[in-house]
Structures are given as structure tokens and as C-alpha cells.
From TrEMBL:
InterPro entries registered for this protein in UniProt: Glyco_trans_2-like, Glycosyltransferase_2, Nucleotide-diphossugar_trans
Superkingdom classification of source: Bacteria
Domain Glycosyltransferase 2-like: 1-127
Designated name of the protein: Glycosyltransferase family 2 protein
Organism expressing this protein natively: Tahibacter amnicola
Length: 229
């Protein structure tokens, strides 16, 4: 769970995950300037604190490398802001296991704004990735995906969404989606969509990445699961 300045919600999310799955919870504290690390540790998480801010993907990758080194077979990522419902995790985990996928994305199309729908249609067109919501941070990665995303090659990615999926597709890993329930943020704001400037930077960087990867398209093995919620 990458987290930066999420002291208002991180403890509840950690407790929710532990209650839902009884699994280890690792919070990668992305150089927060508030009490995020203390709140997460008090709630029972193992906290990895980065010495300087790496962004959401850098923090997530630190967690992937921790999982790889410590022999975990799967990693669930979710936001620390309370958007994702921990009680949905068993459903997502079951969908992942039954689908024999390398990556399962929990999506909630109903939360998408008109602008996001247009943006995602554009990126589906230029990438060939048939994913409903590229920025959903609720995902389950299997061991093969963890190994790919812990690599140096994955360190070149700026964001954890399209770039990650393109890289996994190029390795011929299976990507699937399953519907989940999400809520609006309780506190703070999105890192990607914090201002028009960051949105413009995201669109330009992702477009360049998508175009650069067009010639590197590998076998596409994607599928969508039936609604399980």
C-alpha cells in the first residue's frame, strides 16, 4: 500500500485489510510529512519508509521488491485513501484465483467522469489495451507479475497504470478485470489529477510511452470476468 500524507485514512484501511484477509500488510510510506507511518504501524502494518518521495509507482515497486525478496506469491495493491473497500478483497482474490490471471484489476466504471471516459477511450485506441479504468490502484499481482515489476526495466515507468500494463502484456502475462465497489476519497486529492498541469504532463508522458511501445506489442491475453459484487 503506497501512502503519502494519508494519516486520516491509512489506519482504517490497514485494519480493514487485516480483518478481510488476515494477511501481512505493508505500507510503503512515500516520505510523508504527516503521521502516516505512525498511524499505519499502530494499526498493525509493517511500514517501509522511503528516504525521499518516489511517487505512487516508485513506492509500489518498493513493495514489489520487498515481496519478491521475502517469498510472497501474490501482492494486492490498494490506495490508502479509503476509496477501496477491504471487504471486497476476498471477492477480488477469488476472481483472480479462478481466472488463472497474472494480474486482476478491480474496477468501478460508474465512478469515471466524462473526461476520464474520453481519456481512457483514447488510450485504449493507441495501446490496444482493453481495460476499463487504467488508474485503478486496486490490483492483485501474481508471482510472475511481481518478478517483472520488481525489475530494473520497470523502474523506468513513471506511473503505475498504463506503463505497467504495457510491460506486463509485452511479457505475455494475462490481464483481467473484475467489478468492485469504490467510494470517493475521504481526504486529500489525486496525485495524477491534482491540477491541469499534472493532467497535461500525465497525458503527454503516457502518450509518448504508448506510441513508443506500439512496435513492441506482444501476445494479448486479456479477459474480463463476470460481475462478482
Amino acid at each position: 500500500m503506497p501512502a503519502r500524507n494519508e494519516q486520516a485514512t491509512v489506519a482504517a484501511v490497514v485494519c480493514g485489510v487485516r480483518n478481510a484477509l488476515g494477511c501481512d500488510v505493508v505500507v510503503v510510506n512515500d516520505a510523508s510529512t504527516d503521521a502516516t507511518a505512525a498511524q499505519a504501524a499502530e494499526a498493525g502494518a509493517l511500514v517501509l519508509t522511503l528516504p525521499f518521495q518516489l511517487g505512487a509507482w516508485g513506492a509500489a515497486q518498493a513493495g514489489m521488491r520487498f515481496a519478491l525478496r521475502n517469498g510472497y506469491h501474490s501482492v494486492i495493491t490498494l490506495d490508502a485513501d479509503g476509496q477501496h473497500h477491504p471487504e471486497q478483497l476476498p471477492i477480488l482474490f477469488e476472481a483472480h484465483a479462478s481466472g488463472n490471471a497474472d494480474v486482476t484489476i478491480g474496477t468501478c466504471p460508474g465512478r469515471l467522469s466524462g473526461a476520464k471516459r474520453i481519456a481512457w477511450a483514447y488510450f485504449r485506441l493507441i495501446t490496444g489495451l482493453h481495460v476499463t479504468d487504467f488508474t485503478s490502484g486496486l490490483r492483485i499481482y501474481g508471482r510472475r507479475a511481481i518478478r517483472v515489476l520488481a525489475s530494473r526495466e520497470a523502474s523506468l515507468i513513471d506511473y503505475q497504470d498504463i506503463g505497467v500494463l504495457i510491460l506486463l502484456r509485452r511479457k505475455a502475462l494475462v490481464i483481467q478485470e473484475t467489478p468492485t465497489v469504490m467510494s470517493p476519497r475521504r481526504d486529500g486529492g489525486s496525485r495524477i489529477f491534482s491540477s491541469w498541469l499534472t493532467v497535461a504532463r500525465y497525458m503527454i508522458a503516457t502518450t509518448v510511452l504508448s506510441i513508443a511501445r506500439v512496435g513492441a506489442r506482444g501476445p494479448i491475453r486479456q479477459r474480463a470476468t463476470e460481475a462478482t459484487s
